[in-house]
Amino acid sequence: MPKWLDEMTNAGEPVIPANLRNAVWERDEGQCVKCGTKEDVDVHCVVPYAMPTEANCNVVCKTCLREF
Question: SS3 for the chain, per residue?
Fold first, then answer.
């Protein structure tokens, strides 16, 4: 099994490569796409266990992450 697939299946949320994380962060201007805060935000996959792509990733705060 490829390492990236093993990491994705064991971690619960896939590992988002740094270049993708940076592109999404810039696109979303470092703020939560749902509420607009810049506090406690990170890049997450919207669809759990799906392949991390730019279309499937957003900057989301910890509070709004529970709603996805």
Answer: CCHHHHHHHHHCCCCCCHHHHHHHHHHCCCCCCCCCCCCCEEEEECCCCCCCCHHHEEEEEHHHHCCC
Tell me how far apart the alpha carbons of residues 60 and 56 are, in angstroms, rounded to a whole number: 12
d(CA 24, CA 36): 15
Rounded to two decimals, the pTM is: 0.77
pLDDT tens string 55-66: 999 999 999 988
Q: Tell me if 66 sits within 8 A of 54, measured CB to CB.
A: no
Domain that holds residue 37: 3-65
pLDDT digits (tens, 9 = 90+) for 15-26: 899 999 999 999
